[in-house]
Backbone:
């Protein structure tokens, strides 16, 4: 249960204990709920599933956005905000976030649970490392029409410039043993190989247009994993970023043995006057132990917005580190977290000096910079709201 806590002792002396305890509580709850963290699949729209947009042949080359350049002397980095959604399987949420992002000029990242590309009838095509074929902690893709709908959503996202990453497959968190925290590199290799097989099959058979070469990172389920075992598999699969590990405050991504770690910020929640990992489930757990009480929805949305705004302002006025907003497509607490994230996207992505971007865009932007200029910002203290 405490396997993920060990590394933290070294990274954040002074805070590791409370973080470990908080994480342990979350894990206990996840075990108790037996998969309550699983990503809800959206209900299908009446009238059947939309089909994938027609593939219009070779797209026109997209001009680089104006912020994609080497900083001029005295120019500050844009304040990047990285919205990311784990699971990425809910049509209802895709239908809300895609037009919203487009309307405010935002790009975001959807971390797909690979088995959503398998119908329920195809569940035996997945064998989680150490588990029986067809077994997973989350649902599979549903009916043939459901998977077709998902493919359409993924294609639309890529057409809009959004990014698809991986949330792996079986979502085996602590308690669903062998959970991912106990997996070997060979286990991670198997998990990633199967993920990319599902993508390839969906391309060949269902018209998925997501190019597997553009899937270059992701987030592990429940933010778990033994990184010494997982990172070699990520590298072998061609991934170059991960966004699972927490940092105290908002920090610049760190290159860990060839993988960019985009830290999940551990920041102050004003309503609680304590620090929490800025991820929907972790916030929910701190608000009311993740009780699904929709009567407090508006209150929780406000708490979450205040947390987002505090972290954003601290980064903007401080080290300008990219701000990771981690979320699921979920309706927890009456949709409190989905509403907060959508409201924040609407509010922040149109602010000056602010760019709502994908992970790959930020990695490309970093590659354009003078290393000494970037180091100056990296060496500033982590932004603390
Ligand atoms: Zn998840």
Residues:
């Amino acid at each position: 249960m405490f396997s993920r806590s060990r590394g933290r002792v070294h990274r954040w002396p002074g805070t590791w204990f409370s973080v470990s305890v908080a994480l342990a509580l979350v894990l206990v709850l996840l075990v108790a709920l037996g998969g309550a963290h699983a990503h809800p699949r959206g209900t299908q729209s009446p009238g059947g599933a939309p089909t994938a947009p027609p593939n219009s042949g070779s797209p026109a080359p997209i001009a680089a956005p104006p912020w994609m350049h080497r900083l001029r002397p005295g120019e500050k980095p844009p304040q990047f905000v990285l919205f990311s959604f784990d699971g990425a399987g809910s049509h209802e949420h895709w239908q809300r976030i895609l037009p919203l992002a487009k309307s405010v000029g935002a790009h975001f990242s959807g971390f797909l649970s690979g088995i959503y590309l398998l119908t329920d009838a195809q569940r035996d095509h997945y064998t989680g490392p150490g588990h029986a074929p067809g077994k997973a902690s989350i649902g599979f893709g549903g009916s043939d029409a459901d998977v077709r709908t998902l493919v359409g959503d993924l294609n639309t996202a890529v057409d809009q410039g959004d990014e698809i990453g991986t949330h792996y497959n079986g979502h085996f968190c602590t308690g669903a043993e062998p959970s991912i925290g106990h997996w070997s590199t060979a286990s991670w290799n198997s998990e990633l190989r199967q993920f990319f097989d599902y993508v390839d099959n969906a391309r060949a058979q269902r018209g998925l247009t997501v190019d597997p070469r553009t899937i270059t990172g992701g987030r592990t389920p429940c933010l778990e994993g033994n990184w010494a075992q997982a990172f070699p598999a990520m590298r072998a699969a061609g991934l170059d970023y991960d966004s699972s590990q927490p940092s105290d405050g908002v920090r610049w991504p760190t290159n860990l043995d060839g993988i960019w770690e985009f830290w999940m910020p551990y920041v102050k929640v004003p309503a609680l006057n304590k620090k929490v990992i800025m991820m929907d489930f972790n916030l929910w757990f701190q608000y009311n132990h993740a009780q699904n009480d929709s009567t407090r929805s508006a209150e929780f949305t406000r708490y979450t917005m205040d947390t987002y705004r505090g972290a954003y302002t601290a980064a903007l006025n401080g080290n300008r580190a990219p701000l990771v907003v981690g979320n699921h497509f979920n309706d927890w607490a009456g949709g409190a977290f989905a509403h907060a994230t959508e409201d924040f996207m609407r509010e922040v992505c149109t602010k000056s000096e602010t760019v709502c971007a994908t992970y790959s865009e930020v990695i490309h932007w970093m590659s354009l910079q003078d290393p000494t200029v970037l180091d100056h910002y990296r060496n500033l203290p982590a932004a603390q709201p």
Remarks:
- Confidence is low (pLDDT under 50) at residues 1-38, 40-58.
- The chain is about 40% helix and 15% strand.
- The first strand starts at residue 79 and ends at 87.
